[in-house]
Design goal:
This protein has helices at residues 19-26, 83-90, 100-113, 119-126, 136-150; strands spanning 2-3, 6-7, 45-48, 51-54, 67-69. The protein is an alpha+beta fold. The protein has two domains: 2-73, Roll (Ubiquitin-like (UB roll)), CATH 3.10.20.30; 83-150, DNA polymerase, domain 1. It has a five-stranded mixed β-sheet, covered by helices on one side. A hairpin with a 2-residue loop joins strand 1 and strand 2. The chain is globular, with a radius of gyration of 15 Å. Bound molecules: FE2/S2 (inorganic) cluster (2 copies).
Length: 152
């Protein structure tokens, strides 16, 4: 598989290991969160082949030969933030930050497919990503503002 564009080889003995634990504990990619473990909240969302996938119940063999993107892999090559990440900051869409990686990645997958969304479409795309700080309005604002970047 690749993780954030870098090839990663996993020995057979690790293929049943939980993906979220592998990312956090072996690769130190701690943006991904292990929260509800029921695919209900979206905090564990990463992109797998450009689709937003909740990985709390996934094991490594589920992403064999796939491209996995975590929030740490979203920044630009020069280390600056991706416009969508920047919009979350600029629009005050981050409070405690717990939901943010899953929100940003889910919005990223959505905007790649829908670069000119209405607010209602953005709301629907993110409706099952839960923010316990309830900053939903600013999150929608940020995604709407960043959508311009995806039209280029
Ligand atoms: S931790 Fe996976 S959806 Fe909540
Ligand atoms: S910013 Fe705190 S959970 Fe969303």
């Amino acid at each position: 598989m690749t993780i954030n564009k870098k090839p990663v080889e996993v020995p057979d003995s690790m293929k049943e290991r939980k993906l979220v634990e592998f990312l956090r504990e072996e690769l130190d990619l701690t943006g991904v969160k292990n929260a509800c473990e029921m695919k209900s909240c979206g905090a564990c969302a990463v992109l797998v082949n450009n689709k937003s996938i909740r990985i709390c119940n996934s094991v490594l063999k589920d992403v064999e030969n796939c491209d996995v993107l975590t929030i740490e892999g979203m920044e630009n090559e020069d280390g600056t933030l991706h416009p969508l990440q920047k919009a979350f900051i600029d629009y005050g869409a981050i409070q405690c930050g717990f939901c943010t990686p899953g929100m940003v990645l889910t919005a990223h997958a959505f905007l790649m497919e829908n670069p000119k969304p209405t607010r209602e479409q953005i709301r629907k795309a993110l409706q099952s990503n839960l923010c316990r700080c309830t900053g939903y309005q600013q999150i929608i604002d940020a995604v709407e503002a960043a959508s311009e970047f995806y039209r280029k």
